Amino acid sequence: MKNFLVYGSYGYTGNLIVEQTVKEGLRPLLAGRDEKLLRAQAEKFGLEYRAFSIDNTAALDSALLEVDAVLHCAGPFVLTFRQMAEACIRTKRHYVDISGEIEGFEALAAMDEEAKRAGIMLLPGGGFDVVPSDCLIAHVAGKLAGATHLELYIKSIGSGVSRGTARSGIENSHRAGRIRRDGKIVSVPNVWDSKQVDFGRGSTRVISVGWGDVSTAYHSTGIPNVTVYMGFPAAMVNMMRLTRFVGPVLYTRTARDFMKWIIGKFLAPGPSRKQNENGFSLMIAEVSDGKQTVRAKLRTPEGYYLTALTAVEIMNRILSSDYKTGFQTPSKVYGADFILQFVGVTREDL
Question: Which of 167, 217, 261, 305 is 20 to 30 A from residue 128's alpha carbon, by CA?
Fold first, then answer.
């Protein structure tokens, strides 16, 4: 068998992933709800496909029994991860997704024992969320035993946002910001905190966000206090701040569905090919034990392009029997240096 299924393969990121798999000589089984889009994609790449809703348990299980592992790309993941993960446990197939959503990470962590009994790995965050940041965090944490506080700063340059990412943001908008304090994930208002950070090109304003590392960094390192900051255009920061006051109106199901419809109607599918090739991201991770501080910086290719590279490499590893059973984070299973194998990635201790 030694094959894997890509569910949500015809989405923006899913398509980048399928292109990368074919480039590397792999032949995944494509899957998703829309048979028309699947057929067109399958014909383009000469691959097989299965069309079914993720809520169709019989069809889902049947498709999983054809493969060894799943690369789950259909978001918003808060609406889809559980069906897929539970099916993977039932059928004893490995689960990887490209989510950055805290709820999914924490729920999958709670399935650790079930996954171990099934002999499978559950690895969420197999893309830009959270492979590069998790590896960077593990690197700095390894240099300061007993670190109690972590701050992660992220800035993307020359990229953009896909429809899927925007829809996930809308679906999770009512959850506000999140940080980890004393080992617990707690909610804070949007734009709860801001800082000026120098990524090497002058000072940049970054604001606190509920990024996936608020969940995964704790599982990777045990550091109990985690805050993630990201750079955004000023207009977006102002809009995020506005949600503090109009949030109850925006967070209804009707409003969220309408905003997702608007995104599908007017937002481009995702960054252009030129942006994929020329964009890049910068990250700085800083850990402290109250007396000492350790910092390091990572530069990576554009986030969606990097997601295709990391996700496909993880599937290659799994198909080669390189995995650990149970819930895992990228650095726990593949080490802090996993990210350094990809062209365009550099790391620097500060």
Answer: 261
Q: Given the DSSP bridges, would you call strands 177-181 and 184-188 parallel, antiparallel or unpaired?
A: antiparallel
Q: For CA atoms 264, 50, 312, 142, give the dihedral sign.
A: positive
pTM: 0.91
Query: What residue has token string 């000589």?
Result: 25
- Beta strand spans in 158-220 (E): 177-181, 184-188, 194-198, 203-209
User: What's the pLDDT at 339?
Assistant: 98
Tokens 């094959």 belong to 3
| 3-class DSSP state of 182 | coil
- Give per-residue burial for 266-304: e unless 16+ CB within 10 Å, then b: eeeebbeeebbeebbbbbbbbbbeeeeebbbbbbbbbbb
Compute the distance between CA of residue 187 and CA of residue 284 in angstroms, rounded to an integer. 23
Query: pLDDT tens, 70-90?
Result: 999 998 898 999 999 999 999
Instruction: Quick: pLDDT tens for 261-309.
Output: 665 655 677 788 888 889 999 999 999 999 999 999 999 999 999 999 9
Spatial CB neighbours of 190, under 8 Å, sequence gap ≥ 6: 176, 177, 240, 241, 243, 244
Please give the C-alpha separations between residue 314 and each of 163, 275, 284, 339, in angstroms, as whole numbers: 24, 24, 24, 11
How long is the chain?
Answer: 350
Count of beta carbons in the 10 Å neighbourhood of residue 179: 19
* Position 244, amino acid: R
